[in-house]
Structure formats: structure tokens, C-alpha cells
Design brief:
The protein is of the alpha+beta class. It has one domain (3-132): Aspartate Aminotransferase, domain 1. Helices cover 35% and strands 23% of the residues. The chain has helices spanning 3-9, 15-27, 99-114, 122-132; strands at residues 33-38, 41-46, 49-56, 63-67, 78-79, 87-90. A hairpin with a 7-residue loop joins strand 5 and strand 6 (87-90). The chain is globular, with a radius of gyration of 15 Å. The chain starts with a helix and ends with a helix.
Length: 134
């Protein structure tokens, strides 16, 4: 079992279902998005470059998504706090996820990489292409 899968298995409901739904939404955004295990949490990468992560907040016990380039994004509920670069959006695991907002936010974040606003190192791109068998 992969570490990402093991992470979800150890969660209790309703956080488990909420984070699995978030993962599904993230992975559907682009065929080059992959789930990785980094910094003891599920991290989602575009062609090997980290762009978001999901986890449960240790204090509030609420699930959230963290956007690596969050300082470039402005969406209701996306909060910077004392972070310089990242922003997070917390969710009530018993409520419906804001799917339209998530799709829009994730695609805007991915466009930073797809359009070259944030560079993907050629070595990362080549590694990703080789791993994916392309």
C-alpha cells in the first residue's frame, strides 16, 4: 500500500471521505497531476512540481487544502494567515464541498505551471515524462 493510501486509511469519518473527495477533484484537473507523499502528507504535483496538498488541521481537526502558490490566488475562504507563500482553505467535513470554486482555483493554480509563469525545471519535466512512460 502506498503511503498516500495508508494516510487516508488511518483517518476517521467524516474527514476521510472529505479528503478522498478533495483528492479526486485534484487528480481530475489534469492528467499530469500526481499524488505523492511529501512532508508526511499527500502532496499533489504537476509534472513533478508541488502545487497543492491536503490534510487535517491538528488544532481544529478540520480538513483543508493548501495551495503552494496561494499568494497568487484570491478566493473566498482561502486564507494566508502568517504564511509568506501558501494559503489554505478549510472545510466542514459534514457539508458539501465548493466544487465549482475548487475546480476554478485548482485550474488557475495549474495554469501558473502550464503557462510557464512558474517554471518547471527541465530535469523534473524529463523525469516526469520518463516515469509516466511518455
Amino acid at each position: 500500500m502506498k503511503q498516500v493510501d495508508a494516510y487516508f486509511q488511518q483517518l476517521s469519518e467524516p474527514n476521510k471521505s472529505c479528503l478522498l473527495a478533495l483528492q479526486s477533484i485534484i487528480l481530475q484537473q489534469d492528467r499530469d497531476v500526481t499524488a505523492e507523499w511529501k512532508y508526511a502528507m499527500p502532496m499533489y504535483c504537476y509534472k513533478g512540481k508541488m502545487f497543492c496538498f491536503i490534510r487535517v488541521d491538528t488544532k481544529s481537526q478540520l480538513p483543508y487544502i493548501g495551495m503552494v502558490e496561494g499568494n497568487r490566488l484570491n478566493y473566498p475562504g482561502l486564507e494566508q494567515g502568517d504564511r509568506a507563500r501558501m494559503k489554505v482553505m478549510t472545510f466542514d467535513p459534514e457539508a458539501d464541498l465548493p466544487v465549482d470554486t475548487l475546480h476554478e482555483m485548482l485550474n488557475e493554480a495549474l495554469d501558473f505551471y502550464r503557462k510557464g509563469i512558474i517554471k518547471i525545471e527541465k530535469s523534473r519535466l524529463n523525469q516526469h515524462t520518463r516515469r509516466a512512460g511518455r
